[in-house]
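ESCALATION

Customer reports they have been waiting on this structure for their group meeting. Please prioritize. Original submission:
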Amino acid sequence: MAETTTTTVKTLSQGSTGSRDVDLSKLGDKVLYRTLKEAVVMYQANRRQGTRSTKTRKEVAGSGRKPYRQKHTGRARAGSFQSPIWRGGGVVFGPRPRDFHYQLPRKMKRAALRSALLGKFLDGQVVVVEDLPREKPSTKQAFSLLKAAGAEKSALLVMLDHDPVVLKSFRNIPKVDVRRLADLNAFDVLRRRFLLVTPEVLENLAAGRIHGPAREEVSHG
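Update from on-call: job pushed to the front of the queue and completed.
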């Protein structure tokens, strides 16, 4: 249970750090761990390709004749080269292509997103950044910003709108993702340790304007 509805987040602007108080009342009063767990399991299941496959005895190559005569060989009876007990034969109850995709109710996914964000705020893992590359892509500038925020090893940058310059600046840095606020989900938030947000995104989060994921599945990556 959260003891207070406000918290202090770190701000990074023009190379200097500061702090800012944020009202968390719109994100709920506690972290819903069970809801978070169910949402993460769903998103991970939706990432599975489900393309594993084995051949059954009717699919493996081979002749249809009997391997050897029925009696007087001293061996067990055998009627097919495709038998699972033979080398190169079919597989019994092996994996087959299947779809692991399923969906939780929209309200539950939004509750999971609010809880994930609330947890990041309460753990002090949210940083407000302003010095993003705007004129041209610069991975060097992006990494310097992450290092100044102490989030160079694992971070999620949340933007209000799509910005190709920012995306190109951060996309080559390992374990750093860039998402729009409208595309955000609980799995994205929990996957990385630090949450970097722009001032516009912070205002939306503080006001409770969380619209849930625009796409229902998490992209492979």
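Sent to customer with the following note: The chain is about 30% helix and 15% strand.
Escalation resolved.
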